[in-house]
Amino acid sequence: MDLQVTTDESGGRPVSVLAVSGEVDHATFQAIIDRARALYAEGARRLVIDLSGVTYLGSSGLVALHSAALIFAGLEPPDPEAGWSAFHGMRDDSEAGATENVRLLSPSPRAASVLERTGMRTLFEVFDDRAAAVASF
Amino acid sequence: MPTLRIDATSENLAAVRRFVREAAADAGAAGDAIDDLVQAVDEAVTNVVVHGYGSAGGSVEVEVGQRGEALLIRIVDDAPAFDPTAVPEPDLASPLRQRRLGGMGVHLVRGLCDEVRYRQDGNGRNELTLIKRTSTKVEEEPWISR
User: Fold this and answer.
1) Cα distance from B14 to chain A (closest Cα, Å)?
2) Does residue B134 contact residue B70 with C-beta atoms inside 8 Å?
3) Angle at A48 between CA A92 and CA A89, to 5 degrees
4) CA angle, corner A69, sides to A65 and A72, nearest 5?
5) Which residue from B minimizes the CA distance to A116?
6) Chain A to chain B, count of Cβ pairs less than 8 Å apart?
7) What is the ipTM of this complex?
8) Three-state SS at A47
9) Which DSSP string corresponds to A62-73?
10) Contact A19/A3 with Cβ under 8 angstroms?
11) CB of B81 closer than 8 Å to CB of B120
């Protein structure tokens, strides 16, 4: 898996674009969370995750997308290494804003299939056009 | 039949996927069926790595076979008994912050395969069998026992 970060200011406000390529599985997903956390710590507040180069997206990758959304909502996600059951204990009745600062861009067919099968597709705004994704915030 | 025995670690998941992809292709499976099987096995073995063995570690065996027009993949491990077929389905309509992501792997395994069977073998090992129909006609090879 490879991660590339660029900053796009074409929409007037800075948007971080995190391009994920290769295979996202349990061996690699943590790097996405770490990068999202680092970007947020550096002051980034809007994130586009480009999934066009993803050749494999396991459920661990869904945890990474979920965690990135929570980080950019100003929340600290549970540590996946402490056990995924930690996610079961999350308590927050407010759905509003949970993904408002994160967009998904051009999921590869395989990634799109996994997002669809798990119901994750409906939780994110998904764009096929980078400029439109960047301008959507 | 092709068999892979490997340490149950996250770092070995890529090798598991590569093994299943090649074995399924050699068995004549089509592209979509191969992708589905690769993902189902990855999710199942990930569960063995994360939930089964945890920090204790262990090994896992993946065996690819055929029966009629179906591919059967048997995953055997020595972790504490765990029946993924008994895990409740996740609530896919729940809000993101309440989402139970831990069950997503099992949900994918079920959705990607035509049948999923679990039993403990004669040695008390977990044996998970994933069955995926393919469009390719293959020679009858009823190697699996129940």
Assistant:
1) 8
2) yes
3) 20
4) 135
5) B92
6) 85
7) 0.88
8) strand
9) HHHHHHHHHHHT
10) yes
11) yes
DSSP lists the bridge partners of residue A50 as A19, A105
Give the residue among B41, B35, B30, B32 at the shortest CA–CA distance from B63.
B41
Give the residue from A124, A128, A83, A115 showing the smallest Cα distance to B39.
Answer: A115
pTM score over 0.80: yes
Contact A25 B14 (CB under 8 A): yes
How many residues are given for chain A? 137
Q: Which residue of A has its CA nearest to B35?
A: A110
A118, A123, A124, A125: best to mutate for the B interface, most B CBs within 10 A: A118
Backbone angles phi, psi at B103, to 5 degrees: -90, 0
- pLDDT tens for chain A, 137 residues long, are 999 999 999 988 999 999 999 999 999 999 999 999 999 999 999 999 999 999 999 999 999 998 999 999 998 787 665 544 444 433 343 344 677 899 999 999 999 999 999 888 888 999 999 999 999 99
Residue B80, number of CB atoms within 10 A of its CB: 12
Question: Three-class SS of residue A61?
Answer: helix
CA distance A29 to A114: 15
Q: What is the largest CA-CA distance in chain B?
A: 49
Chain B residues whose CB is inside 8 A of the A31 CB are none
Contact A20, A50 (CB under 8 A): yes
Question: Distance (Å, rounded) from C-alpha A56 to C-alpha A54?
Answer: 6
Minimal Cα–Cα distance from A70 to chain B, Å? Answer: 8
Chain A residues in contact with B104 (beta carbon < 8 A): 59, 62, 118
Question: In a 3-state reduction of DSSP, which class is residue B40?
Answer: helix
> How far, in whole angstroms, is CA A112 from its chain's centroid?
13
Q: Are strands B126-133 and B115-120 parallel, antiparallel or unpaired?
A: antiparallel
* Minimal C-alpha gap between A58 and chain B (Å): 7
